[in-house]
Amino acid sequence: MPDIFISQREQEKEENSVDSKAGLRFETQEKEEKIIFLLRKHWVTNIPWLFLAIILILAPLVLPYFPLLTFLPWRYQLMAIILWYLLITAFVLERFLSWYFNVYIVTDQRIIDYDFYNLLYKDTCEADIEKIQDVSVKMGGMGQVIFNFGNILIETAGAIPNLEFEQVPNPASVAKVIHELRDKIGGEQGV
């Protein structure tokens, strides 16, 4: 739970207890920086590609009913099926890694957006909390309303690019905490 929701006495108790995010670290984390949220796309966003993968896995079972490939020798058919399953495995692995490593981190000092494109390329954008000008939530469609996920657009000051958290769970709650963090840091700095 973010520090802004915890009373002083509970904070002292919490510092002595095991925090669920205490062991989490990311590569550019400062020594005194605390992780408040570690967000990924909602798990429901994986259903379309999982459904497609299941259909593709079952596809070779209907091949005997199509005489198109029967002219090939049995060994070539077996190699084609093995290659088919290797391609499906690569597809599933790529989609899972993309979902797992695209993370959005909200700390008590800044917001970081890690975009994982493939094993060789990733993009990182970050903005200090005090540079945030506006936070808006966008939820559209029945699925997003039912499962409570949506996009959060974070507008920042100056040349810093705007950040967008795509399809994250509980976007209104996350946006509220970001607003409160910004107000808390702005109040400490006398802004």
Automatic annotation (TrEMBL):
The keyword Transmembrane applies. The chain crosses the membrane at residues 49-68, 74-93. Keywords: Membrane, Transmembrane, Transmembrane helix. It comes from the Bacteria. PANTHER family: BLL0215 PROTEIN (PTHR37938:SF1). This is DUF304 domain-containing protein. It comes from Candidatus Shapirobacteria bacterium CG10_big_fil_rev_8_21_14_0_10_40_9.
